[in-house]
Amino acid sequence: MELNNLITQQWQVIMNNDYHFDRQFWYGVTTTKIFCKPSCPPRPPIYNNIVIFTAPEQASAADFRPCKRYRPFNQIVNNQIWVNEIEQV
């Protein structure tokens, strides 16, 4: 994982939720350890908290978990897993 490799175009894509860039890159939010595709419409992230990944597997390997709206592995994330992770924080 490369930190601080966000470029201006990727930032604009994330802020505009541009679906044309889905599957070209994924972004993770370092404060929540959640990753999403560019078109996912969550609350806008803070620029300095973003990390770019080239594949969802890369994000998972860096200990980021998938967004509940977006299921990159086509699997529903079990709610108990989320509860357990939140309780550990």
UniProtKB/TrEMBL annotation:
Keyword Membrane belongs to the record: no
Domain Ada DNA repair metal-binding per the UniProt entry, residue ranges: 10-72
InterPro entries xrefs: Ada-like_dom_sf, Ada_DNA_repair_Zn-bd
Name of the protein in question: Ada DNA repair metal-binding domain-containing protein
Gene3D superfamilies xrefs: DNA Methylphosphotriester Repair Domain
Biological source species: Limosilactobacillus walteri
Swiss-Prot/TrEMBL keywords: Activator
